[in-house]
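Try this one yourself first.
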C-alpha cells in the first residue's frame, strides 16, 4: 500500500498547497481590492472606482476594513485544494510522460501539455469554490454571505459559471510553470556542477529562496500579460450582482459568457477597458506566485523527509498487520 503511492508527487502537492495557503492569507486584502476593481464596468464619468486605492479607501471610510477579508476561508480552501490537485497532477503527469517516452528531461511543448492537463483537472474540482470566493469578494462590504448560502443562490449549475474561461485559463499556469521549470533547470544544472554527486541523492535539489522568488515573479508576469483579457472576463462573470441602487442600471446584469463580457467592456470602456486592472493583477499574482513558489521550494526538503518518515511508518505497520 505504501509503495503504491507516488511519494514524490505527494511531496510536490503538499509543499505547493502549504505555500498557497500562506500566500493567499498574506495577500488577501490586495486580492479583494483587485477583484472588486476588475468586476466594475461602467460608462465614463460614472465609475465608482477610478483606481485600485479607491476600493481600500471605501473599506476604511465606511469602517469595513475587516470586510477586505470576506470570503478568506473559502479562498483558502479553494487555494489549498487547487494547488494540491495541480502540483500532484503536474508532477504525476510529468513523471508518467518521462517513463513512457524514456526521455531524461521534458521539453517545452510537452511541459505545456502536461501543465494544461494538470490545470484542467484542477479547474473541474475547484470551480464551485472559485465562483463562491469571487462572489464573496465582489459583494458589498459587510454583506458577504457564507459559502453554503452563496452556492445555494439560484441553480447549482451557476456554481460552474465561467468554467469555459477557467479551462481556457489553464494556459496561465501552463505558461507560468513551464517558464519557471525551464529557468529552474538551468540554474540547478549550474549548481549541480559544484556539488558532489553523493550529496545530490540525499534529497531533491531546490532553489534558494531568492532565486525561487525572482523566477516566480518573472514566470507569472509573462503568463498574466498573455492571458489577462480572459482573466478580467472571468471575474465579471463570477461577480456578485451589485446592491448599489445608483449603479443598478449599469451593473445589475452580469454577463454570463466571455463574448458578453468583452462586449460589455468594449461598449462602455473601449479597448483600454480590456486591460483595466492589469497592473493590480500583476502586482497581486506576481507577489502571490513568487511567495508561493519561494515557500514551496524552501519547505520541499523538509516535506520530503516527512514523507519518507511516513512511508517508513506505513511499511512497518503494514508488515506488522501481515505478520498477525
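Now uncover the answer:
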Amino acid at each position: 500500500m505504501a509503495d503504491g503511492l507516488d511519494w514524490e508527487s505527494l511531496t510536490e502537492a503538499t509543499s505547493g498547497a502549504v505555500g498557497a495557503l500562506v500566500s493567499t492569507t498574506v495577500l488577501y486584502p490586495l486580492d479583494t481590492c483587485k477583484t472588486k476593481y476588475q468586476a466594475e464596468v461602467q460608462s465614463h464619468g460614472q465609475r465608482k472606482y477610478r483606481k485600485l486605492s479607491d476600493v481600500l479607501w471605501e473599506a476604511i471610510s465606511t469602517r469595513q476594513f475587516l470586510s477586505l477579508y470576506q470570503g478568506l476561508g473559502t479562498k483558502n480552501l479553494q487555494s489549498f485544494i487547487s494547488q494540491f490537485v495541480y502540483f500532484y497532477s503536474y508532477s504525476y503527469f510529468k513523471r508518467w510522460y518521462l517513463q513512457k517516452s524514456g526521455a531524461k528531461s521534458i521539453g517545452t511543448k510537452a511541459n505545456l501539455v502536461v501543465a494544461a492537463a494538470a490545470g484542467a483537472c484542477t479547474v473541474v474540482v475547484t470551480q464551485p469554490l472559485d465562483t463562491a470566493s469571487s462572489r464573496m469578494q465582489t459583494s458589498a462590504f459587510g454583506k458577504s454571505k457564507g459559502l453554503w448560502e452563496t452556492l445555494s443562490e439560484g441553480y447549482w449549475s451557476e456554481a460552474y459559471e465561467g468554467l469555459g474561461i477557467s479551462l481556457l485559463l489553464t494556459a496561465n499556469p501552463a505558461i507560468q510553470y513551464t517558464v519557471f521549470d525551464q529557468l529552474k533547470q538551468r540554474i540547478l544544472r549550474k549548481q549541480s556542477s559544484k556539488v558532489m554527486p553523493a550529496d545530490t541523492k540525499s534529497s531533491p535539489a531546490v532553489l534558494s529562496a531568492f532565486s525561487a522568488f525572482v523566477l516566480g515573479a518573472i514566470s507569472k508576469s509573462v503568463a498574466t500579460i498573455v492571458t489577462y483579457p480572459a482573466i478580467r472576463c472571468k471575474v465579471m462573470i463570477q461577480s456578485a450582482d451589485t446592491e448599489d441602487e445608483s449603479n443598478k442600471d449599469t451593473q445589475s446584469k452580469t454577463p454570463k459568457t466571455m463574448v458578453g463580457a468583452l462586449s460589455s467592456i468594449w461598449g462602455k470602456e473601449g479597448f483600454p477597458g480590456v486591460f483595466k486592472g492589469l497592473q493590480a493583477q500583476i502586482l497581486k499574482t506576481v507577489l502571490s506566485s513568487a511567495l508561493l513558489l519561494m515557500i514551496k521550494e524552501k519547505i520541499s526538503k523538509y516535506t520530503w523527509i516527512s514523507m519518507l518518515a511516513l512511508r517508513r511508518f506505513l511499511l512497518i505497520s503494514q508488515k506488522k498487520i501481515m505478520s498477525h
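Discussion: The mean pLDDT is 79. The chain is about 70% helix and 0% strand.
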